[in-house]
Write a structure and sequence with these properties.
The complex is a heterotrimer of chains A (about 350), B (about 240) and C (about 70). Chain A has about 350 residues and is α/β, with parallel strands linked by helices. Chain A has twelve helices and 16 strands. Chain A folds into two domains: about 230 residues, Thiamin diphosphate (ThDP)-binding fold, Pyr/PP domains (Rossmann fold, 3-Layer(aba) Sandwich), CATH 3.40.50.970; about 120 residues, Rossmann fold, CATH 3.40.50.920. Chain A is about 40% helix and about 20% strand. In chain A, strand 15, helix 11 and strand 16 form a beta-alpha-beta unit. Chain A is globular. Chain B contains ten helices and eight strands. Chain B has a seven-stranded mixed sheet with strand order 3-2-4-5-7-6-8, sandwiched between helices. In chain B, helix 8 links the parallel strand 6 and strand 7. Chain B has a single domain, classed as Thiamin diphosphate (ThDP)-binding fold, Pyr/PP domains (Rossmann fold), CATH 3.40.50.970. Chain C is an alpha+beta fold. The two termini of chain C are about 15 Å apart. Classes of the chains: A alpha/beta (about 350), B alpha/beta (about 240), C alpha+beta (about 70). Chains in contact: A-B, B-C. The interface between A and B is large, with 40 and 33 residues. Strand 1 of chain B pairs antiparallel with strand 4 of chain C.
Chain lengths: ~350, ~240, ~70
């Protein structure tokens, strides 16, 4: 297929349609508005249906109902709206329903601002809603990667029976880049025999539910869920290594921020300074092992986490590094995007400390 | 001998967990019988609420989904979008529908969702132990209105049927009760009509069933029926509030 | 053959059936069922007119009614 120039939000939408998403439940909030608009326009042509909900709360519960019937279904929102969706996401996780949820992050807390941020990291990877659960959270860095991961997210959701989140930010949502829609590698997916589709008596009644009033039953069910999470950690953890060989300083950054970091790394390399980047592609499951590996290397002196937040992923980086090396931080938040020069300045400061 | 009355196949064999004299069981029966008589049990997908009737999913003999508190109409919307030929109903109490879920029910009606809503109003939060609901009567004593509901601090009861009838999107809205044999038989007719509307793609129907909560009202089951007839009905009058032919 | 049959073990003794019985033949047994209630019962089966009022009001659906034809 030919490359086409698309805005991130629209490319994510088209990827979902090509992945077989048939139902989308939307609610307006900046900076993700192109997703519901694209879905409203293009989903019916693909035999699907767009529904505008009265709130993010309603939208996520519509996702629950539709996913419970076995359909491929998606919703999208941005930070304040994601807060409203958390109850529903907890229920989706509890009922083990597959779906795809897109968060095009803006700045917070509260109404915050409409400019890009990465300050929903904790909400995305540490639960967000109540109870013991996790989501698979993809953090694409380019529009192309957002397309690839969105297409794959539907398969992964169906395979593990879990909601999957695409965690982007206002930059990714709004930027235009050339993209190609290549279907992901085929996975063997289980039949949705559990879906509520009406029962003609040929099977027991199906039930979509997260209530287990007997402690023993809920305990066992949660253990089974966490066994599944172990499998996800083993099979689905993804990251990118960039220029890490022989680097004394390793930067940890994800999503849009990682792109600016890459430019800084390239620029420094031209000046003869070698630093590396570990870019988590799945922020849950988080690639702790690779951080531990690099932290154990004598070559590596220091880690530097760079985020568009006051420091959230740094906690996971520290868990990976496990005290073996110092972990420094540089962040911009509130809708301020860290510039090339700001990041470069911080990196040079860290390099000086290391070589001093 | 001919059997003139037995438990419907629209319900499972599971014994109801409801308190003695609680009228949820009667309403369950009317819904299940309607589905069987209209020959749509095999196409039915029910949505259970949060509250006393959360375990409705164990009683209705069809596919079921359990929704978070108040969100059953949104869940039902999701189901109906995917399976437009299925018969989708929500079963909600007044805490669920009139309090936390007031937005979801309002917009499901406004969208004209082709679903059937069974709204059981007993003027109190039952499952959590008898707290004041939006439907609690002025002066009614609950655990959170120990001196009786005071309009100065607690406001006034919400009449959901009257409100939803105002929306262009609603098709059929009726309030019924189950305090005697005649009322129960009429309630059955209304519930059945609400499902017929859905089968005929007529749009949003809601039947509000005034119901009792002897345990949290602190009355015997029989006194509860009397209180419903005398007190509740004066605030929540029975009748058809909307019927688009 | 009995005209009105109660599943005694599932009765909660609420009394809605007895209150609507036009023949006033429903009473509460001295025995206590597994749920701890005195179950509703009918001894005078011949007086039952199979009207079904008791079953119509029973919230626990424990009553089956039959009619002579």
């Amino acid at each position: 297929m030919k490359k086409v120039l698309m805005k991130g939000n629209e490319a994510i939408s088209e990827a979902a349609i090509q992945a077989g998403c048939k139902f989308f439940f939307g609610y307006p909030i900046t900076p993700q508005n192109e997703i519901p608009a694209y879905m409203a326009k293009h989903l019916p042509k693909a035999g699907g249906r767009y529904t505008q909900a009265e709130s993010e709360i309603a939208a996520i519960n519509m996702v629950y109902g539709a996913a419970g019937c076995g359909a491929r279904v998606m919703t999208s929102s941005s930070s304040p709206g994601m807060s409203l969706k958390q109850e529903g996401i907890s229920y989706l996780a509890g009922a083990q329903l597959p779906c795809v949820i897109v968060n095009i992050m803006r700045s917070g807390p509260g109404l915050g601002g409409i400019l890009p941020a990465q300050s929903d990291y904790f909400q995305a990877v540490k639960g967000g809603g109540h109870g013991d659960y996790n989501l698979i959270v993809y953090a694409p860095s380019t529009v192309q990667e957002a397309v690839t991961l969105t297409m794959e997210a539907f398969d992964v959701a169906d395979l593990y029976l879990t909601p999957v989140m695409i965690l982007g930010d206002g930059i990714l949502g709004q930027v235009m880049e050339p993209v190609e829609f290549i279907p992901p590698k085929k996975r063997k997916l289980p039949k949705k025999t559990w879906a509520t589709t009406g029962n003609d008596g040929s099977r027991p009644n199906n039930l979509i539910n997260s209530l287990y009033i007997e402690a023993d039953v809920l305990y066992e069910r949660t253990l089974a869920q966490y066994k599944k999470y172990d499998l996800i950690k083993e099979k689905e953890t993804r990251y990118e290594l960039y220029n890490t060989a022989d680097a004394e300083v390793i930067i940890a950054a994800y999503g849009s921020t990682a792109r600016i970091v890459k430019s800084v790394i390239d620029g420094l390399l031209e000046e003869g300074i070698r630093i590396g980047l570990i870019r988590p592609i799945t922020v849950w499951p988080f690639p702790y092992t690779i951080f531990e590996e690099y932290a154990s290397s004598d070559k590596v002196k220091k880690f530097l986490t760079i985020e568009m937040s006051m420091g959230q992923m740094i906690e996971d980086v520290k868990l990976g590094v496990n005290g073996k090396k110092p972990v420094d931080f540089f962040g911009r938040t509130g809708g301020k995007i860290p510039t090339y020069d700001e990041i470069k300045g911080k990196v040079i400061e860290v390099i000086r400390e290391v070589t001093a | 001998m001919k059997t003139v009355f037995e438990k419907t196949k629209g319900l499972t064999d599971k014994t109801f967990h409801y308190c003695p004299g609680c009228t949820h069981g009667i309403v369950h029966r009317l819904v299940a019988e309607s589905l069987v008589e209209l020959n749509v049990l095999d196409k039915a997908i029910g949505v259970a609420p949060v509250g006393c009737s959360v375990f409705a999913y164990e009683y209705f003999n069809c596919d079921m989904q359990q929704a978070s508190h108040g969100r059953a109409p949104a869940v039902a919307t999701g189901i109906k979008r995917v399976l437009p030929d299925s018969i989708v109903f929500t079963y909600q109490g007044d805490g669920d529908l009139a309090s936390i879920g007031s937005a979801e029910i309002m917009h499901a009606a406004a969208r004209g969702e082709n679903i059937t809503v069974i709204y059981v109003n007993n003027a109190i939060f039952g499952m959590t132990g008898g707290q004041m609901a939006p439907t609690t009567l002025i002066g009614q004593v609950t655990t959170t209105s120990p001196n009786g509901r005071d309009p100065l601090t607690d406001g006034y009861p919400i009449n959901m049927s009257e409100m939803l009838a105002q929306l262009i999107g609603s098709t059929y809205i009726e309030r019924v009760s189950i305090t005697n044999v005649k009322n129960v038989k009429h309630a059955k007719k209304a519930i059945k009509k609400a499902f017929e509307n859905q089968i005929n793609n007529k749009g949003f129907s809601m039947i509000e069933i005034l119901s009792t909560c002897p345990t949290n009202w602190g009355m015997t089951p029989l006194d509860s029926l009397k209180w419903l007839d005398e007190k509740m009905q004066s605030v929540f009058p029975l009748g058809v509030f909307k019927e688009v032919k | 053959m009995k005209k009105v049959i109660f599943k005694h073990d599932e009765c909660k003794g609420c009394g809605l059936c007895a209150a609507v019985c036009p023949k006033k033949i429903i009473f509460f047994d001295k025995s206590i069922n597994p749920n701890g209630f005195h179950p509703a019962t009918v001894d005078e089966q011949d007086k039952c007119i199979s009207c079904g009022f008791c079953a119509t009001m029973c919230p626990d659906l424990i009553i089956t009614v039959r009619k002579e034809v």
